[in-house]
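Bumping with the actual sequence this time:
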Amino acid sequence: MSTGMLLSAEAVRPQGEAFPHSLSYQTGSGRIVCLVGPDGAGKTTWLRMLAGVELPAAGRLQLLGLDVMRLDTPAWRRLRCRAAFINASAPLLSVVDGFSNVMLPALYHRLGTAAAVRVKALETLEFLGYTGRRDALPAFLNLHERLLLAIARCLMLSPELLFLDEPFHMADDACRRREAEIYLRLKRERNLTVLVATHNLGFVKRYADDIVFIHPQGVWPFPGWTDFAAATLPAVRGFLDAAA
């Protein structure tokens, strides 16, 4: 595990983002960081930039001590094992079953024998509380099951950072609660730092260690819900009033 700062950004808006704002932010191990803001403000784009999937227009971005803007292709691929990114659709390979989806990245990176990878995959699914079919193709699984498989696939590579874009798809409150508890367990039991772009303010209020507020007028970090809710910035007040 890395010590110190896992993510450090002194960056101007992601390339192509409409709002020319900058963000100064750092975070270490075992944190839950939530990116929140109104629709269309750029939460997904900023999350992709912080994950190194897209580059900032200017400035500096370091993940796990590495300067993302200077990485060559092999180094970037190695970084993706340690800084995992799951987009809003939680994509899986459509032509293989769910359990194969979980195992394939670890097999590809030769992280153990097939038998050892299988054991770790089973343990990972148990850790996540996955109760869906393991032998079904992704098309026959619901959104919650596909998300859990996508998370399991990432965990097989033992990442230190996990970036998720709008993961709370399910209308079922029980599924959302179980999902929230997974992120808390990843933080507490695996010292993983989880960065989530989300509209789920209940999750943010209860679990966020840090909040990055993204708005057409600017981008501001806050150390948790208490400071965020007490902020006097008109953009924050308007956002919270609209969400009430």
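The tokens above came from a reply further down the thread. The chain has a mean pLDDT of 91.
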